[in-house]
Amino acid sequence: MSVATRPQFVFDNSYVRELHGLYEPWQAATATSPRLLALNEALAHELGLDVEALQAPDGVAVLVGNATPEGASPVAQAYAGHQFGGFSPRLGDGRALLVGEVLDAHGRRRDLHLKGSGRTPFSRGGDGKAAVGPMLREYVIGEAMHALGIPTTRALAVVATGDLIERETMLPGAVLARIASSHLRVGTFQYAATHDDHDTLVRRLADHAIARHHPRALDAGNPYLALFEHVVEAQASLVARWMLVGFIHGVMNTDNMTISGETIDYGPCAFMDVFDPDTVFSSIDHGGRYAYGNQPVIAQWNLARLAETLLPLFDAERDAAIAAATDVLRSFTARYQAHWTAGMRAKLGLIGDARSAATAEQDDGADLLIDDLLTLLRAQAVDFTSFFRALSTSLRGDDAPLRTLVAEPAALDGWSARWRARLSAAGRRPQATAAVMDRVNPIYIPRNHLVEAALVAATDGDMAPFRQLLDVLAQPFDERPGLDAYAAPAPPSAARYRTFCGT
Ligand code: AMP
Ligand code: MG
Fold first, then answer.
1. Residues lining ligand 1, judged by CB closer than 6 Å?
2. 287 and 207 within one domain
3. Are residues 474 and 403 in the same domain?
4. What is the number of other CB atoms lying within 10 angstroms of the CB of residue 329?
5. Which of 242-246, 271-275, 473-477, 493-497 has the lowest mean pLDDT?
6. How many domains does the chain have?
7. Mode of pairing for the β-strands spanning 2-3 and 67-68
8. Which atom from ligand 1 is nearest to the alpha carbon of 91?
9. Residue 235 and residue 102 share a domain
10. What is the pTM of this model?
């Protein structure tokens, strides 16, 4: 372990400074022969980092954990968590480190974090390592989410360590360098609440979270309740955005849910192909707890666990604290519905932009149209992503793609007529509406078979398919010639897709 001499990063480590008791100072394991597999140049620029310096051996040494940059203060963060509903009081970074907090060119604070960087005091039985495939998977799906406008942690780099790690077979090891607005999790609050006799640790953590993610809470009558409300809103919005693109996180344990509202910990996640709320990809999710259609309810369940840790801060009197928490928690449903409805209306060309703030005025006709569509998509086993692009194509006068997607095309006729009637009643012209729809309905998503093919190639040393896939996914809404294979659903012959935790 050496100290890098050239300071590229400007660090200000508020977590370490303010939150004693929630981390263990630690160093990364040494990688034998690091090799940079992927560097996120756009993100590096955003952070004000010198790309060439990062690509040089000194830079790669920092990205893999072989060197600690000046000003960094690496720690393994402590957290607890409900995993599939069962509480573990001590999880923590078992194979990861917070290197430090970087201030970017605009003074914004971002965590620089390594994943796959070796054993820590939180490793339990694990080896602290990660394989090339799952780390590249987090990179590509995170970038796809970012390009879709969905809040997410982002990969800065993946570096192969040169070491083999033991899984079902021996696999090449890697470290992911990740950037996040913080790594504060619901599980961080659960750990603080479990290991704190006098509420001082939870209070310090809540103050830290307010400063980082919701400084305006300080103006509220009850800043801690305002913080909770802010997290409820951020998660309602986030999960609605997942649902609107068919994203299934796969392991929504409380330790995998952020306070910032960013998507985190891409393990067994995947995008749904055929619309079916029961869709589960994760091989370990036997009960379907984290199925597509359950995600909003699970988010609210996780937020209830967050509220429990904050009760003493909401009100000294327990009943009053519970009443206040319950009110805010209940608001999740309406907030989620508002985001979802506004997003679905946008997908159907019925309002402006799914990514703009929710504007869900009462409109029973539109809502019924949405409900009926979902029933149809499920009954007709329609590919969720392709459907909305085929719909805009039909507005341009070509019905063929739509009719190929639907098992019994005639089943769509009634719905389609109602939808078109609404558009014309609102005075919306077909061509303009089609264009607006294409701004919110992606044509390119990280299709499971494409991701898998890119990762298999990368594990064998060929990075070209991975780079090409990243390139396609960087502009998910713009149809480009020659990319038909990236837009198509998986061939029906493909085996039922299964994902595994990123270990
Ligand atoms: P995850 O399912 O990846 O979110 O991880 C859940 C918990 O298991 C976290 O505390 C991780 O740090 C820990 N963990 C996962 N994989 C490993 C590993 N290979 N070695 C040590 N700890 C791990
Ligand atoms: Mg995790």
1. 91-96, 122-123, 126-129, 251, 256, 265, 267, 501-503
2. yes
3. no
4. 19
5. 493-497
6. 4
7. parallel
8. 10
9. no
10. 0.96
Helix 464-473 × helix 132-147 angle, to 10°: 20
How far from the centroid of its chain's Cα atoms is residue 420's Cα? 34
Burial status of residue 106 (CB atoms within 10 A of its CB: 0-12, 13-18, 19 or more):
exposed
Q: Are residues 143 and 239 in the same domain?
A: no
Tens of pLDDT along 315-347? 999 999 999 999 999 999 999 999 999 999 999
Residue 401 lies in a domain: yes
The predicted-structure confidence for 350-385, as pLDDT tens digits, reads as follows 984 444 434 446 788 889 999 999 999 999 999 999
Residue 351 domain-assigned (yes or no): no
Orientation angle between helical segments 132-147 and 448-459, nearest 10 degrees: 140
**Where are the alpha helices (H) located in 259-363, listed in sequence order?**
295-314, 318-347
Dihedral sign for Cα atoms in the order 66, 67, 72, 73: positive
| Whole-number pLDDT of residue 7 | 46
Report the phi/psi class of residue 162: left, alpha or beta, with left for phi > 0 and alpha for psi in -120 to 50: left
Ligand 1 centroid to 457 CA: how many Å?
25
The answer on 391 and 267 residing in a single domain is no
- 7 and 155 fall within a common domain: yes
The protein residue with its alpha carbon nearest to ligand 1, atom 22, reads: 94
- The closest ligand to the CA of 122 turns out to be 1
**Do 155 and 178 touch, CB atoms closer than 8 A?**
yes
pLDDT at 308 over 60: yes
Residue nearest to atom 14 of ligand 1 (CA): 94
Contact 175, 30 (CB under 8 A): no
pLDDT for residue 358 = 43
Query: How far apart are the CA of 94 and the centre of ligand 1, in A?
Result: 5
In a domain, 29, yes or no: yes
